[in-house]
Amino acid sequence: MSRLILVSNRVSTPKARGDEVSQGGLAVALSAALRETGGIWFGWSGETIETFSGEINRQSADGVTIATVDLEPQDVDEYYNGYANRTLWPLFHYRIDLAEFDLQFGAGYERVNDRFAATVAPLIEPDDIIWVHDYHLIPLGQRLRRKGLRNPMGFFLHIPWPPYRLMTALPFHRRLVESILEYDVIGFQTSEWLDSFRHYLVTEMGLKIDGDILVYRGRRIKLGAYPIGIDGAQLDRMVTTHNAQEAFKTVRRSAPNQKTVIGVDRLDYSKGLIERFQGYRYFLEHYPDWHSKVFLLQIAPPSRGEVHTYEDIRKQLDELSGRINGAFAHVDWVPIRYVNQAYPRDGLTGFYRASDVALVTPLRDGMNLVAKEFVAAQDPEDPGVLILSKFAGAAEAMGRALLVNPHSKEQISKALERALTMPLSERRDRWEALNDVVRKEDVTAWRDTFLADLRQAEDKLFFATPP
Ligand code: GDG
Fold first, then answer.
1. Could you tell me if the CB of 339 is within 6 A of ligand 1?
2. Which atom of ligand 1 approaches the CA of 301 most closely?
3. Is 176 left (phi over 0), alpha (psi -120 to 50) or beta?
4. Catalytic residue among 77, 102, 114, 158, which?
5. Rounded to an integer, what distance in angstroms lies between the CA atom of residue 458 and that of residue 128?
6. pLDDT tens by residue, 275-315
7. 359: domain range?
8. Which GO BP annotation is one of this protein's (predicted)?
9. Quick check: is 466 in a domain?
10. Residue 464 domain-assigned?
11. Annotation marks residue 158 as catalytic
12. 242 in a structural domain
């Protein structure tokens, strides 16, 4: 089988071999695929260097090479903090009000994609297949093609694809979309994001799509939805570890007569944390019987601190959680425990298991793995209840969760009351259905389906040489 070349903005390097605590399911699954065929995982080191040199930091083991490059501070500002996280991220998460359109960002984005292409191209052999990840690197395939590479290339977008009209608000949107059409397989998390992409192709570009195949300039491109998932077996192992059990006991002992509602999110405006806290406050106002009997444990490790909108949301959340606690707390009860630190993955699974309800209420989310991790970590005899935003990609297959509109404090509040009083038989029934989905649509299925399609491109089933 041909070697696999993975390219993503950041590369996951395990601290130790088989270290499950430092590597998430996605990294483990991709590393395993690399080990099967041999290959390279390429990306930014996370380090900066005064002048870009293209010098590669390498680490090789088991036929797999981890290769990274350092970027200039200006690259990081314009490409990573700029175009990726201040333009595409907000726009693709429907926050056009937060999107910044700056020519310098676009120039930096293209420059870094060129730099990535120039650095990785010499490492690629003619028989390799290439899999590029996420919004940071949309034009990479095109840049590799310009260097004469004819390898099968696939692209997977981890975040939503915005509706047609929103996409056209991006200056030079067509240039970005044309670059994506250099791949042979283009994958999205859900059929909703895929439909938005198709809508753009048909309406804006007048293209015809035959089933899931787009014929573009004489080439056949496969378009698909590939829902990402978790590694269920990894989670099962983690939940039985000492750390997980300690974390479980810490939560249970800290409030023996209270129910636990958990939220776990990167501190990001797309995760709907403000709306979640407001929904929880509404619940406390309307169901006073629950005072002293429930608390919300919100774990929210800060991310992207260099982008000012993230500072803003952090301030708002500090204030709102403080105000809610100030208004409702008693000497022996704090309604929100708002924690701004990251926990090790194994401890996190203990928190999930100790919780009665999870509030997963993003305003928009490509998929959302927390929803799946919470379900997989439950005790089958006495499972907790998942409250899930209908705007998370995960909702497409997890219809047995309590689905809510995350903008509606009434719906969040009602769902909380329903979840906290749900009879055991209903909890089990819903959990079994959800757990089936989580175990079936797991990270291995995601990876293997995508790679199978990419290998079909290799066999020229989708991929045809221009006439
Ligand atoms: C993007 C897309 C898509 C969270 N807190 C801690 C911690 N986490 C872990 C969770 C989970 C991961 O981070 C977050 O994944 P999500 O899927 O929820 O969200 P994004 O980070 O926005 O990811 C998303 C995903 O890519 C995959 O395609 O699902 O839609 O936005 O695994 O457990 N991990 C540790 N400590 C924490 O405190 N160790």
1. no
2. 38
3. alpha
4. 158
5. 9
6. 999 999 999 999 999 999 999 999 999 989 888 899 999 99
7. 232-440
8. trehalose biosynthetic process
9. no
10. no
11. yes
12. yes
Tell me phi and psi for residue 401, to 5 degrees: -75, 170
Task: Output the pLDDT for position 16.
Answer: 52
d(CA 419, CA 427): 8
Q: Which of 30, 32, 36 is nearest to 10 (CA)?
A: 30
Q: In this predicted complex, what is the ipTM?
A: 0.99
The residues facing 360 across adjacent strands are 388
Between strands 209-210 and 213-216, the pairing is: antiparallel
3-state per-residue secondary structure call for 20-60: CCCCCHHHHHHHHHHHHHCEEEEEEEEEECCCCCCCCEEEE
Is 467 inside any structural domain? no
Task: Yes or no: say if 321 and 281 are a contact pair by the CB < 8 Å rule.
Answer: no
Length of the chain: 467
| Same domain as 455, residue 326 | no
- Residue 365 falls in the annotated catalytic set: yes
In 226-368, where does DSSP find H-type helix?
232-239, 242-254, 273-286, 308-328, 345-354
**208 and 92 together in one domain:** yes
User: What is the number of domains present in the chain?
Assistant: 2
Handedness of CA 238, 343, 389, 329 (dihedral sign): positive
Same domain (yes/no): 206, 288: no
Distance 370 CA to ligand 1 centre (A): 6
**Same domain for 164 and 257?**
no
Asked whether 457 and 222 are in contact (CB, 8 A), the reply is yes
φ, ψ of residue 14 in degrees (nearest 5): -65, 140
Per-residue pLDDT reduced to its tens digit, 76-99: 999 999 999 999 999 999 999 999
Whether residue 24 has its Cβ less than 6 Å from ligand 1 = yes
If asked whether residues 320 and 223 sit together in one domain, one would say: no
Q: Which of 266, 359, 443 to mutate to test the pocket of ligand 1 (most atoms within 8 A of CB)?
A: 266
pLDDT beyond 50 at 324: yes
The secondary structure element, H or E, covering residue 8 is strand 4-10
User: Which CATH number goes with the domain that contains 303?
Assistant: 3.40.50.2000
Question: How far is the C-alpha of 76 from the C-alpha of 42, rounded, in Å?
Answer: 17
Q: Are residues 10 and 73 in the same domain?
A: yes
pLDDT computed for residue 467 by the predictor: 41
Measured N-to-C along each axis, helices 409-420 and 273-286 cross at an angle, to the nearest 10 degrees, of 60
In sequence order, what DSSP letters do the residues of 438-449 get, joined into one string? HHHS-HHHHHHH
Are 226 and 189 in contact by the 8 Å Cβ rule? The answer is yes
Same domain, 136 and 270: no
The catalytically annotated residue of 134, 231, 365, 453 is 365
Task: For strands 64-71 and 129-133, give the pairing.
Answer: unpaired
Helix, coil or strand: residue 97? coil
